Amino acid sequence: MSIHIFIYNFSCGNILFSCGYSASLLYSQHSSADKHKLEHFLQNNGMHDLITTGFLLSVDPDRIIIKWLVLSGHPFKIFNKMAVVWYMFFNREDVLWFKPVELRTKWDHRGHITEPLGTHGHMNCHFDGQLKSQDTVLLNLYKCVSPKWTYDPHVPEPVPWVRNEQQISVQEVEME
């Protein structure tokens, strides 16, 4: 079953579904894999603009939506195929955590972290070629994203229902 939806954007950043409810939205590409890429495409379009129309394929809480992040650092000292990189991490534990992940640069060199240096996030890295001083070292990350749940823990007390036995008389009003 598919529901036809209309999505409107307001200048304050709120989104409105025209199918009867509003929600915190996550948009993703539909693919045949079990992981789907998060889409960032909504802009402030004015007071009340129609953004898109489409179909809601399914509401699947087990759908995995992936957000792509890139951490960047700068070479501090450059040797033949080694470089000291800083400003990517700021503590030793993060360097050790991301040690198995492959690094790349904007000038198309590949590398990996060999060891952390000190306690402030500096690290020794080995690359397939010599880096240039203006190069940037990048680390690609993929993070699972879930919708923000708006839950109000305060549940008001139910109002007791009492049947009113009195008849309320309706006063006649002259219409002019």
UniProtKB/TrEMBL annotation:
Query: Looking at the record's lineage, which domain of life comes first?
Result: Eukaryota
Q: Which residues form a coiled coil?
A: none
Any one of the GO CC terms: preribosome, small subunit precursor
Q: Tell me the GO molecular function terms.
A: GTP binding; GTPase activity; U3 snoRNA binding
Q: Which GO terms of type biological process are on file?
A: endonucleolytic cleavage of tricistronic rRNA transcript (SSU-rRNA, 5.8S rRNA, LSU-rRNA); maturation of SSU-rRNA from tricistronic rRNA transcript (SSU-rRNA, 5.8S rRNA, LSU-rRNA)
Which Pfam family is an annotated match for this chain, by its short name? Answer: RIBIOP_C
Its name, as the record gives it, is Pre-rRNA-processing protein TSR1 homolog
